[in-house]
Amino acid sequence: MTMKKYFDKLVTRYPVLRPILPSIEQTAAEMAELFRRGGTFFVAGNGGSGADAEHICGELLKGFKSRRTLRESDKAALLAADPLVGAALGDALQYGLPAVSLLSHPALTSAFGNDVDPELAFAQQLWALGKPGDICMGISTGGNAANIYKTFAVARAKKIRTILLTGNRHGSCERLADIVIAAPDAETYRIQELHLPIYHTLCMAVESQFFTMIEDK
Questions:
Q1: Which helix (H) or strand (E) holds 137?
Q2: Residue 204: HSE in the Cβ half-sphere, 13 Å Cα cutoff
Q3: Which pLDDT band holds residue 81 (cuts at 50, 70, 90)?
Q4: In the prediction, which pLDDT does 25 show?
Q5: Contacts of 36 (CB under 8 A, 6+ apart)
Q6: What is the pTM of this model?
Q7: Which of 90, 66, 26 is nearest to 215 (CA)?
Q8: What is 4-68+95-207's CATH number, 3.40.250.10, 3.30.2310.20, 3.40.50.10490, 1.10.10.10?
């Protein structure tokens, strides 16, 4: 199924995003190819952008606009694993697209921040978990978040693709980003308001490549 209709809906509802549509389309294409290869999508941010990072993973790891029902073979495997709960698991569990929020390991991040350097907590996780060909999205409205910059440096060393979701301030993180999605505003809260439809569209478009979608009424 083509992803084009999701991009068309985005720019119809948010015409201001039309100039940056090529970077959004490229990101969706690379994410879809990543998941076809069995790679992992990492994402990180600070404050509100950190909440967005968690939100993105939530849309990828379970059904967003699709049901993602398990195949009968997987249901049978669960039932064979345990007859007491296997049937319920088979009916409830959903397929997911591998996504990791680098904010989701508080024991590790607090320990590393206390023992080593809090600015390197994301970078440490990507160094430990990332593999060549994976993708790391960093969300920074100003584009200058030091912990995102250093995480992107790790990504470059490990041959991990980098995507910067940002605003139009042209911060330092752009230097290490393979793709820049720059929401056309300089005010933090307005950038964040535009980030939401951008990443929802990315998640829907990518999801449509793997699962049967439930269309909006």
A1: strand 135-139
A2: 19
A3: very high
A4: 98
A5: 209
A6: 0.95
A7: 66
A8: 3.40.50.10490
